Amino acid sequence: MFKKWAVIVSLVFTTLSPSAFGYQQGELLSSKAQQELGLNPNELTIIDFFAQWCVSCREELPEVETLSRQLAGRGVSIVGVDVDEEVEVGLAFQRELGLTFRVVADPQQVLVTDFQPTGMPALYYVYQGKVLKVRFGAINNIRQVIIDDIRSLDLAE
């Protein structure tokens, strides 16, 4: 009996494509996701998934906010996706942190289901609808990491 289940589990995992686990580097976002996020195809957009309950998000978002102001008008934008199920909780969290970059509320979990990030916070670097880079989880000195990531990206892809 154990062998039978082991074979079934093995088959399931070997037949799943990487895209079954959410957007990966090199993949195109669905047109619906691009529209929901209001992406400008002619600029690099960093999509930042976060929530009020995420301790690491609370630590990183002030650095992301500072960076968003520094990047204004330079062809790079940051769009937050607040996955809190209660919109008012998310809005209060954004006010508490003083976020000024554009944030899309996702209380119905539509975007988070589409992207399927494997941790929070989650960053997706998107240019012309294509995912160029993905980062999950807490990252020390996130502002500098993002700056280095931007410098390393080939936007001619």
UniProtKB/TrEMBL annotation:
Keyword Disulfide bond applies: yes
Chief localization: other
GO MF, one annotated term: antioxidant activity
Protein name, UniProt field: Thioredoxin domain-containing protein
Listed GO biological process terms: cytochrome complex assembly
Signal peptide: 1-22
Location(s), subcellular: Cell envelope
Keyword annotations: Cytochrome c-type biogenesis, Disulfide bond, Redox-active center, Signal
Annotated Gene Ontology cellular component terms: cell envelope
Chain ranges of the Thioredoxin domain: 10-155
Lineage: Bacteria, Pseudomonadati, Pseudomonadota, Gammaproteobacteria, Alteromonadales
CDD domains documented for this protein: TlpA_like_family
PROSITE patterns: THIOREDOXIN_1, THIOREDOXIN_2
